[in-house]
Structures
1.
Amino acid sequence: MPDQLHARVEACYRQAEAFFNRRFERPQVSFKLRGQKAGVAHLDQNLLRFNPQLYRENREHFLKQTVAHEVAHLIAHQMFGGRIRPHGEEWQLIMRGVYELTPDRCHTYEIARRQAHRFIYRCRCDGQDFPFTAQRHALVRKGRRYYCLQCRATLVFSGEQRLE
């Protein structure tokens, strides 16, 4: 895990401790998050997960905003309990009052869509292509069936694959 990110998590905790005049248990921090989310706070596990790809591509803003955003979730949970709304007034208070940041719910980082393999299935009625994801293709191989909405025949794998 990058030292800058770890240092920023610690700095956010120290700010919160100075503001609330109390100590907070430090979370476990993971750099194993993929997909569209920049960060996730697992409240009951006291765990922060961050997306290394989005961190690399948006380092300055990520360190300032995303890390504080996720730490604020854990601080709000420890201060106010588990019955608060994720981006409710308690979380917003911490973002504005402690970190002096805008309480943005979502990031605006550009996310490149990667190409995906599609498995081409066809129906006997008109030969129309039905591109299946790898996950759906695996389900078919385990016995699940998918049907054409027009003729109700089982869709059959054509043997073709393509990148989309």
2.
Amino acid sequence: MGAPIAMQQRFWNEWNASTREMHLDEVSFRQAAVVRDWLMRQGSKTLDILEVGCGACWFSDELSQFGQVTGTDLSDEVLARAQQNIPQVRFVSGDFMGLDFGIQSFDVIVCLEVLSHIADQPAFITKLASHLRPGGYLMLATQNKTVLQKYNRIPPPGPGQLRQWVDRTELASLLSAHFEIIELFSVTPRANKGLLRILHSRTLNRPVRALIGDRLDKLKEAMGLGWTLMVRARKPVSAL
């Protein structure tokens, strides 16, 4: 069931104001870099983009370089501030599951670190698919359950914060009903407990990177040890 929407809204308004509006870390920067690369592959076409769970709207301005952007999030106070600063993006606050963005209205949906905070994940994926045109793309990032549970100490959820991480297999299963998965991989290795904490330590990795660049990080990501799961999935052209 999860927490009431009003409680979730309060949590995310406070969290974004105190955290994401103040600071971005390597996890966010890497997610943005991957999505940016995917969008550049779309060519010069002006895209209709829906950013679901735009949070502090830190990526919305950059997304607008690729087309017309609509951003939505539960954090109404945050979006009100963002609308003043990013007028070229249309922001719509509210519970995504109850909002109507039209059927087959978008070429691309971007969704970063939202899935794990959704109570009914299959229904969420179904709704995302409904807003995409046939042949449209979902570009999604979500926390990697395997890495977070096994190799990281994570504070318990706050009041109003839902937490349902998924692993690679669970993510693929959720998407398979409505999408063809084009790419699914992990990025940003991170660990703060166990042996992987040593392997991921900045003290160890700094001289290694100086010698071999990011090849070790790429290897860790290929092994599925990234904090984030990134997926690019396509809605079939034949889908109604």
3.
Amino acid sequence: MPSVVVVMGVSGSGKSTVGRLLAQRLMVPFLEADDLHPAANRAKMAAGHPLDDEDRRPWLMSVADWIRRATHDGQGGVVACSALKHEYRDLFRQAGAGVWFLYLALDRATADRRVAGRMDHFMPARLLDSQYADLEPLRPDEPGLTVDATADPRTIVDEAVRTVREIG
């Protein structure tokens, strides 16, 4: 089985919900990668400004460090992280053996509706443009599964667990 599952996708795709459920099912630690954003990144996004690669670099390194520890100690884990670009996912794969991606694919209209309905999140809906501009879906050479993020989260988790067990 993969040592770490990265639940990825744009804001509003359900990464946190699916990630928590998946971690519970796999009985491994869960990381909400948004919790690792420096205060400056949170403030920039809250002000309606998208992050660039330079802004993301320290955050991505923190996520990679968590993956490295999770794979090194043998505990594994699940992390909810946008992981929008192939190069970010490569960084995660280099951090630990057995990193696998669960891509929650979501259409723009549904993402808009979900993000607009949030009351307690720092990222405003207007930043979805930048996320979709940066989004690079999983490539055939990347280990993982793409699922429809409009499906019930428990159904998504069931499919992910089935797939992970088949490859493990």
